Amino acid sequence: MARILCIDDEAAIRRLIVEELRDAGHEPIEAADGETGLALIASQRPDLVLCDISMPKLDGYQVLERMRALGPDFRLMPFVYLSAMAEPRQVTAGKRLGADDYITKPIAFEELVATIERRLRR
Amino acid sequence: MWRAIFRKKLFIAIMTAQFMIFAFDTTTRADDVSIGFLYTIPTLMGFLIIERGLQITIVVLSITLILTGCFFPVPIETDLLVFFANRVLSIITVLITGIMVNYRVRMEQTLGDALAKERKASAMQRAFVSMVSHEFRTPLTIIDGEAYRMGKVKQAVSPEDLQTRVKSIRQAVSRMIVLIERILYTSRAFDNKISMHLERVNLWTLLKSIGRQHSEVALSHQIKVNVHDLPVSIRADRNLVTYILDNLIGNAIKYSPEGSVVEVTGQTNGTMAVIAVRDQGIGIPEADLPNLFEPYYRGGNVAGISGSGVGLYLVETFVRMHGGRILVESVEGQGSVFTVQMPVAGAEPAPAVSTGESSFPDKQ
Q1: Residue B310 placed within a domain
Q2: Nearest CB to A105; choose among B138, B146, B149
Q3: Could you say which DSSP state residue A106 is in?
Q4: DSSP state of A54
Q5: Structural domain span for residue B108
Q6: Do B97 and B224 fall into the same domain?
Q7: To the nearest 10°, the Cα dihedral for B122, B126, B128, B129?
Q8: Is B355 contained in some domain?
Q9: How many domains does chain B have?
Q10: Contact yes or no for B134 and A85 at CB 8 A
Q11: Structural domain spans, chain A
Q12: What is the pLDDT of residue B43?
């Protein structure tokens, strides 16, 4: 069981992911925007962060950058992007920024948990 | 910009003076061939810069001056043949070079314009493809996700749960339909193929009902609609007017924080119905204001707020089709006011206006 933070501004998508993670036996926490997400990263120290990119207030790029700057504990925290920006250059940009994985929307739900768990084992 | 205008004016002044001196010289001192040609080069350079109308004026003026010179007594020591040959040669040189340079400049301009247009079109095409890809993925994620989750459940689903999912799917579908409609209408608007069906539209009822619809969805916003100073009805296309008002009120909600007020007010200004939609939202950066109604253009401060980039383009097009206009006032970080002015009596009859069935489908 792992504590997984899901940051996405679409409530319906957040609900789906939370349900799926709970089914898989994890403990999901959620945030509706980047600012709240970053605060939860610092206070809850999740085992993995699932983060959307296009969000109001703080976008996914800024969340990752600021998270890595929080301290040594956060430098290796698994971070997975979950975005509708699916063009190859956007995926590359996300990975170059230091994301461990980049899942594009529509999400292949069958693979979501597998990807997360593979990342958690490392 | 002012410097450029000043430089251009100065150049035209110098150039005109030179051309006059040139004309005068060839008239009075025609024996000295070199003086006549001395002015040819700066004069021709000037031709590159100035407008066509001015070029013609200067040439006509100069020719008149030279021809007038013919009636003055020719200096005694001048060979008459040299005098006229020089004069004619000068005029012909100026004219031919001027025409050639002019032609070239115009060709370059045409080519440049065509290239710029093409570049803009292809940039717009890219923006469109990227927008479609991005904006469709989110509702698709929801539909696919709900279907996947429902396929996975093992025990009986509660009616409440089912209702939540059905609602979520239907919302995602209607999001996609709105997007498809906008794409279709944008492409029709590009080709000027949107037709209008003018009828009496009750503005009061329409505004109140649009306001109510938005209030039901945007529970955290306070939407105030005050229609009392508006004409009760105007002659317009019902669907297009609905789109205009729905889009402006929707934008006001979308781009303003929860708990803020969206205010719709109206007044009658002569023959115009004036409707203003005011929000306390993120506002529009000054740099974006001139391009706000361009298709696929979105403000620099909308990151993370989904949108097709064609809503305001269509609003402006529809307002213009009705013979009205739209104005924006905005301070970034404080809010925006969109003001629509529409003629109460309807659009002036224009060839583009057909009386056929309105092509804009009713909103669900």
Answers
A1: yes
A2: B138
A3: S
A4: S
A5: 2-115
A6: no
A7: 130
A8: no
A9: 2
A10: yes
A11: 3-121
A12: 61
CB-nearest to A55 from B142, B168, B304 is B304
Q: Could you tell me if A66 lies within 8 Å of chain B, comparing CB atoms?
A: no
The domain boundary, picked from B115, B144, B175, lies at: B115
CATH code for residues A3-121: 3.40.50.2300
B40 within domain boundaries: yes
d(CA B314, CA B244): 8
Q: Are residues B203 and B339 in the same domain?
A: yes
For residue B271, give the CATH number of its domain: 3.30.565.10
**What is the per-residue pLDDT for B326?**
96
What's the CA gap between A57 and B341, in Å, rounded?
34
Q: Specify burial of residue B188 (Cβ count, 10 A radius: 0-12, 13-18, 19+).
A: middle
Render pLDDT for B208-229 as a digit per residue (tens, 0 to 9).
999 999 998 888 899 999 988 9
Other CB atoms within 10 A of residue B205 CB: 12
- Write out the residues of chain B at the interface with chain A, using a CB-CB cutoff of 8 A: 130, 133-135, 137-138, 140-142, 144-146, 148-149, 152, 168, 171-172, 303-306
- Tokens representing A21 are 């993670």
Q: What is the pLDDT of residue A81?
A: 95
Give a yes or no: residue B109 inside a domain.
yes
For the stretch B263-291, pLDDT in tens is 999 999 889 999 999 999 999 999 999 98
Angle at CA A32, nearest 5°, toward A29 and A38?
70
